[in-house]
Amino acid sequence: MKMIVFEEVDKSFGGRKVLRNLSAVCCGGQITSVVGPNGCGKSTFLKLAGHFMLPDSGRVTIKEEDMVLQGEELRMSLAYMSPELRFYPRLTALENLSFFLGLRGIALDGRQYEEVLERVGILPEAVKRTRVGEFSTGMRQRLLFCVMLASKADIWLLDEPGANLDDEGRAMVLREIKRGASEQKLILLATNDSRERGAADEAIDLSGN
Ligand SMILES: Nc1ncnc2c1ncn2[C@@H]1O[C@H](COP(=O)(O)OP(=O)(O)OP(=O)(O)O)[C@@H](O)[C@H]1O
């Protein structure tokens, strides 16, 4: 089982301390929500968890049975989804999907594409024909979720995964994160959505930071 361990982590931007002496443990098989008001450091917490950003002091480690994961093994364990991510707007959705999965060495056959697209509620025909620049924001969000599901990562770092989704899309997100946790994936969920917060097994509240 994978674990993410924060030990006495401090993080500041331009003299403003965002995270102060933060210690926390997130475990595989659980949904851990990261909550608190706008600007309290939820996205920063996820970026530190994924090693996309380094702490000023303290330590963030990803472990499996006491072994600290590093390099390629660490990279392949992680899937990250954030409103900051962008697709190539002039490529079709299918071209974008194949490109981003290809970066991880994953090639899906037609049936596998259909299966994962159905899970996120995108019609396979739309994926072949439509450039991502013509997708609605909600459709792009579903496509981000699709890349994550197909990535085979077992740590999901989800920054507001329900953003821009309709009720059915938000229900899909809840269904998939619960399924992910039941498959022992480690799920970190930065969110202000009450239903997503309600689905979590554990919560890290950054409001007092
Ligand atoms: N790369 C950066 N450079 C400078 N300041 C940053 C950077 N990243 C985050 N910050 C600042 O750190 C603080 C925390 O930002 P963060 O995005 O982690 O908050 P958040 O809780 O995710 O907010 P929201 O709920 O609005 O998404 C904010 O004041 C933000 O402006």
From TrEMBL:
It comes from Schwartzia succinivorans DSM 10502. Keywords: ATP-binding, Nucleotide-binding, Transport. Transmembrane segments: none annotated. It comes from the Bacteria. This is Heme exporter protein A. InterPro entries: AAA+_ATPase, ABC_transporter-like_ATP-bd, ABC_Transporter_VariousFunc, P-loop_NTPase. PROSITE patterns: ABC_TRANSPORTER_2. Residues 4-207 form the ABC transporter domain. One of its GO terms (molecular function) is ATP hydrolysis activity.
